[in-house]
Design a protein that fits this description.
161 residues; mainly alpha; 4 helices; transport; Sec8/EXOC4; Exocyst complex component Sec8
Length: 161
Amino acid sequence: MSAAREAANASSRRQPVDWDAVDEELASVPAEYREYIFHPLRHVVEVFSSQDPQGLTQELRDASERLGCQLDAVVEGYHAGFARSIHNYSHILQLFGESKEQVESLKRSLADAARQLGAHSRGMGPQWRKTVSLESSLRLLADIRTVVEVPGRVDAAVGER
């Protein structure tokens, strides 16, 4: 059986996470153990100064074990999804990086094109004036040819009569 098929079968056999049990277990943890800034020394002194240090220590170990089991259930139930999400996020970051490089390359290409057009535009004005002047000269030459050909046409027309 392939590894992918085994993983698919294992994921189908997983039990869904019992969130009520997780919430119940978290609620059973005393508030002083859930403080944002945890001060372990205070709790160590409390355990050592209690009437039954071994009993209190065992309660803490049992609570830790129960929380560990709940954590294992959550990790087991959602590991594949977490891994897939992290992989997808990594792929998205990679695509953003590639897109950024492509945009930078496009900006450089556009800047080069703008520089080339700017360089060509300096020479294009005189070239346009030269083109207009040459077109005007060609029209004048065509008019002169027409005038030069008139006497020949007149002679041809008189000769036909």
